[in-house]
């Protein structure tokens, strides 16, 4: 699943491609039926023609195109991506919606491509509603270590599911939760209120560090068309190799996996306590 660094790279890609200031002229939506809310939702976007993108915002994994009338909310789900197409290009396979926009004399084609159809594309009346239920963004400068420690130290749940709770911290997914816990030597099974404030402070800085590193890596490795490099595999974005038979990069002990809260955790039982 694209997490905060991947989604931020998409936001910056769209900005570089000139969609801010562009006006929607048309939209083509897939023929398959979609829900109006929740996972995989497509709703309201057929009314988007004539609206102008004023700016692009992001909180966690959610992109919000702020329009002169309403908000276009984009969530990439598990496999979603946004592609700015050449004027003569064929519509990619698995396109759920293709938007046509115009900025001055330039025609822009923007496709939301999603093989698993979990991405959501919705028109909201306000930014508050587009970001409803989301906690502070994990890279928000105002989200301090003090707030992070205070939030988690009050809770008795295991630390990893708390990091994945988007209502507490927006933007952290499975990969970067495992990365940050490994960097800070904290077991994913530890109860948050049993972790010292000092170690939670270490976790805060580890989390920000791995998110910032991943974003820097993605932005510096675009594909041959300048699109963000988003691959769900082991690369220099991460220290932990998320595959069977992998070893801890710190102590070389075999990594273990276990499902916690419905998500698979990769961890080192020797140096994460």
Descriptive report:
- 36% of the residues are buried.
- α5 (174-183) packs across α6 (197-219).
- With 273 residues, the protein is an alpha+beta fold.
- It has two domains: 4-130, MutM-like, N-terminal (N-terminal domain of MutM-like DNA repair proteins, Alpha-Beta Barrel), CATH 3.20.190.10; 145-267, Helicase, Ruva Protein, domain 3.
- The model has no long low-confidence stretch (mean pLDDT 94).
- The protein contains six helices and eleven strands.
- The strands form three sheets. A five-stranded mixed beta sheet has the order 2-9-5-4-3.
- It is elongated and about 60 Å long.
Q: What would the average pLDDT be, to the nearest integer?
A: 94
SSE topology string = HEEEEEEEEEHHHHHEE
CATH architecture tag of the largest domain: Alpha-Beta Barrel
Structural class: alpha+beta
| CATH top level assignment of the largest domain | Alpha Beta
What is the radius of gyration? 20 Å
List segments where confidence is low: pLDDT < 50 over at least 5 consecutive residues: none
Fourth-level CATH superfamily of the largest domain: MutM-like, N-terminal
Largest sheet report = 5 strands, mixed
Summarize the structure.
The chain is of the alpha+beta class and about 270 residues long.
Describe the SSE topology.
Elements: H1 4-16, E1 23-29, E2 42-43, E3 53-59, E4 62-67, E5 71-75, E6 81-85, E7 95-103, E8 106-113, E9 120-124, H2 127-130, H3 145-153, H4 159-164, H5 174-183, H6 197-219, E10 256-260, E11 263-267
Parallel strand pairs: 2-9
Antiparallel strand pairs: 1-7, 3-4, 4-5, 5-9, 6-8, 7-8, 10-11
Helix pairs in contact: 1-6, 3-6, 5-6
């Amino acid at each position: 699943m694209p997490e905060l660094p991947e989604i931020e790279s998409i936001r910056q890609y769209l900005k570089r491609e000139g969609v801010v200031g562009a006006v929607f002229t048309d939209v083509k939506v897939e023929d398959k039926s979609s829900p109006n809310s929740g996972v995989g939702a497509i709703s309201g976007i057929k009314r988007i023609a004539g609206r102008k993108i004023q700016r692009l915002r992001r909180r966690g994994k959610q992109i919000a195109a702020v329009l002169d009338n309403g908000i276009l909310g984009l969530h990439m789900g598990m496999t979603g991506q946004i592609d700015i197409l050449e004027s003569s290009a064929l519509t990619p396979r698995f396109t759920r919606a293709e938007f046509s926009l115009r900025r001055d004399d330039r025609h822009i084609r923007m496709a939301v491509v999603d093989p698993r159809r979990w991405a959501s594309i919705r028109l909201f009346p306000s930014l508050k509603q587009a970001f409803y239920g989301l906690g502070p963004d994990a890279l928000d400068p105002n989200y301090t270590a003090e707030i992070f420690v205070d939030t988690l130290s009050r809770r008795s749940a295991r630390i990893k599911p708390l990091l994945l709770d988007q209502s507490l911290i927006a933007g952290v997914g499975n990969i970067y939760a495992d990365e940050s816990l490994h960097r800070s030597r904290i077991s994913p099974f530890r109860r948050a209120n049993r972790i010292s404030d000092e170690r939670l402070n270490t976790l805060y800085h580890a989390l920000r560090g791995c998110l910032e590193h991943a974003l820097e890596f993605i932005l510096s490795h675009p594909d041959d068309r300048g699109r963000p490099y988003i691959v769900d595999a082991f690369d220099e974005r991460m220290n932990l190799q998320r595959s069977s038979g992998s070893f801890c990069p710190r102590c070389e002990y075999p990594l273990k996996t276990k499902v916690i809260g419905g998500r698979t955790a990769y961890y080192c039982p020797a140096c994460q306590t």
